[in-house]
């Protein structure tokens, strides 16, 4: 999933589907909450992990860090959303 547009479509389409199902009364509130929970805590962290893995920013053993809230995703926010290249991950600059 190296293309940024495919990543964004993959994250938006399920959310739009869930919201439209609820908006047109095709699912009840209980299913809406379950689907939003699955999207937020299972699907989206998995998708972010797959993208960061394909970019080489995380290793295969790091998948546990994405479970639950998956706060590690915010460390790589620029790489996920804007396709920025990773600089030095330690926070230290090597420049002048």
SSE order and pairing:
Layout: H1 4-23, H2 29-54, H3 77-82
Question: Can you describe what's shown?
Answer:
It is a single chain. With 96 residues, the chain is mainly α. It has one domain. Helix 1 runs antiparallel to helix 2.
Shape: globular
Our Rg estimate from Cα atoms comes to 16 Å
Alpha-carbon distance between the termini?
34 Å
Q: Which H/E pattern describes the elements?
A: HHH
Structural class: mainly alpha
Mean pLDDT: 83
Largest sheet: none
Brief description of this entry?
This protein has 96 residues and is mainly alpha-helical. It has helices at residues 4-23, 29-54, 77-82.
Question: Which key terms come to mind for this protein?
Answer:
54% helix, 3 helices, single chain, globular, mainly alpha, 96 residues
